[in-house]
Every structure is written in C-alpha cells, then in structure tokens.
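Usage

Read records sequentially. Each one opens with the input sequence:
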Amino acid sequence: MAQATLKIDDLRVEVGGKLILKGVSLEIRQGEIHAIMGPNGSGKSTLAYALMGHPGYEVVGGTATINGVDLLELAPNERAKAGVFLAFQYPTAIPGVTVANFLRHAVTNIRVPNRKEGAELIPMREFRKELREEMGKLEMDPEFARRYLNDGFSGGEKKRAEILQLSLLRPKFAILDETDSGLDIDALKTVSEGVNRLSGPEMGVLVITHYQRLLNYIKPQFVHVMLAGRLVESGGADLALALEEKGYDWVREKYPEIAEELEEQEAAEGSSTVGTRG
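and closes with the structure output:
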C-alpha cells in the first residue's frame, strides 16, 4: 500500500475573527518526522487545532487533505478515523471516565470505523492485554488504567496518557502540540522514547515546540520556523540547533515586515493570549 501524505495548502485560519494562519503550506508523508518551531503567538498551536477540527478555529481558506480526502469537510471524530491524532498541550480532565474505558471505546471506534452505536466493543480480555503491554512500555503503573482520565494527573502523567492513546490508536499522522511542556527530563525521555518507538513507515509525526531540547530526543528530518502565521524557514536538524544557539532574533531580522506584524498583534492583544495560539 502506498504511503499516505498529509498535504496542507495555503491554509488560513481565524480565531475570534482575527486572521492567525496566513497561508501555511506543508506536506508530511508517513515515515517522516517534521518539527515546527517559533515564538509564542506565531500560530503553531492554531495549525494543530485547525487540522483536528476545533470549533473555535475557523478555516477561511486553503485545504488540508490525506491522499485527496478533504479533512476540513470532516467532523473531528471522522478526522481521527481518517488517521489524524492530536496530543494536546493541556489535556482536559474527564472525571468519572476511567482511562481504560475511554481508551477501549476510542480504540474500537478507530479500528471499526463503521461501528453502529451500541455495537459490541473490542473484547475486554483482548483489550486489557494490549493495554497492559503498552503501559509497561511507558513505565506506567497498571493502576493508572483505573483512574479518571487526566483527573488529578501530574503534567508528566497527562503526557504519558497522551502517548498511551497514540500507541493504541496508531494513526497515520500524529500531531504533538508542545508535548514537552511541563515535563522534567525523566518524563521527557519516557515520552520521547514512546514517540520514537511508534514513529516509522506507517506514521508521520508533526512535533510543535518552542525549544530544541525535545528535538534532542525526537529527531526530525525536517524543521520549519513559523512567524506571524507563516512558515518562513525550512531545513534539516541543523536549523533547530541554530535556533537554540541564536534564538529567533535572526529570523525576525530576516523577515522584518512579518516580525512587525507579530509585534503589532501582541501589542494589540496583550499577554492574555500567550500560549493559546502558540
């Protein structure tokens, strides 16, 4: 079977009536690892949420397809069935729903995409065995499966839970939005090892991050720099090292008009939006 391609072409997205993404184009093939870096407010998380179908992010132009299938015409659950997964920067707590129950329903719906409401789930014995195996690989206590999803979880536990979902759902494309946020080095290594184990010929990965440190563990073949809603630079892993060494000032200096847009946007909106559309 031919490898799938996630193709984003001239994507433009508004949030609260303000244009945040201003024509983003990117192609990711299964088996590739791409990283998008950029300062706060540049639009990195907006890209992730728009691709997954968050209702607060309105696509006003451009396309996003997987092998010709228009993602933008699909509901978020249908995008998941089409092969897109988003690991959130700030996963939501769902009190009353255990990790195991949530994952059993999610895995069933992804693996049996035409399943009718009320139809049987994956057999418990089969699912429990697979769940325990994947939790073991992520060094997670078996009791974790009985806890309510993200309810009272530490930052590291939330990110491990996201990678556990990824390992069971096995999408064509995984988008990791600031997965390194709030992690200590040990948790960062565990999460990165999980991503590296899962990435390969059947899964493309898009890593969104501010910092190069995550890319010490997850090695991208392609690195892109986003500034004021545009991808302005692309290169290999050496580009991430240059950003670590020099910061983003040289990018701003190279694209002064775009940098000025970002500064005006930040001044107009104030610090309250920092982190919401990074």
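Summary fields computed downstream for this record:
- The chain has two domains: 5-91+172-273, 92-152.
- Residues 155-169 form the longest helix (15 residues).
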